[in-house]
Amino acid sequence: MKFVSIVLGSKSDYEVMKSCSDTFEAFGVNYELIVSSAHRAPERTTEYMHESEKKGAQVYIAAAGMAAHLAGVLSSKTVKPIIGVPMSASALAGIDALLSTVQMPAGMPVATVAIGKAGAINSAYLAMQILALDNSELSIKLQEDRIAKAKKVEMDSLEIETIIK
Q1: What is the pLDDT averaged over residues 127-151?
Q2: Cα dihedral across residues 105, 82, 57, 12: positive or negative
């Protein structure tokens, strides 16, 4: 079974990353969620990577705050796509995590999305776009979602225009 793996650096990341798993559920995309720290549980993280690839993980999403090395560690263990979600877990409001996630050495790519909830949702969409490269059913669902979003903007605009008049 093909699926997306969501790896949280800490249990405290779950509240934000639930938006990611909720997005997958809305689209009927299989996912697995695990807590594993690059710093506090490096062996667990390495073992999980080996096991998850054997089970069918196609894309990995890594959510971590502060030093945020989780996405980089995952990238070092696989050639599958990695998407990093910086979390706001310090006095720097996630800027430290953003910089740690986006500044990867050449040859160890991590696609990095926004800090927090918007990033959690966008990580799901980016993962689905990757999966949709060879899944026409998912591609159609994503196209329909874009059309629905565009229609909502049009409806919102009409409502505002009505209020202004």
Answers
A1: 97
A2: positive
Tokens describing residue 146? 């874009």
* Residue 67 vs residues 72, 92, 97, 100: alpha-carbon distances, Å: 11, 11, 6, 6
What secondary structure letter does DSSP report for 68? -
| Short-list 84, 72, 47, 62, CA closest to 9 | 62
CA atoms within 13 A on the CB side of 144: 8
Contact between 7 and 61 (Cβ < 8 Å): yes
Tokens standing for residue 139: 């591609």
**pLDDT tens-digit profile of 71-124?**
999 999 999 999 999 999 888 899 999 999 999 999 999 999 999 999 999 999
Cα-Cα-Cα-Cα torsion 112, 114, 118, 119, nearest 10 degrees, comes to: 20
User: Is residue 76 exposed (0-12), middle (13-18) or buried (19+ Cβ within 10 Å)?
Assistant: middle
- pTM reported for the whole predicted model: 0.93
Residues ≥6 apart with Cβ < 8 Å to 46: 77
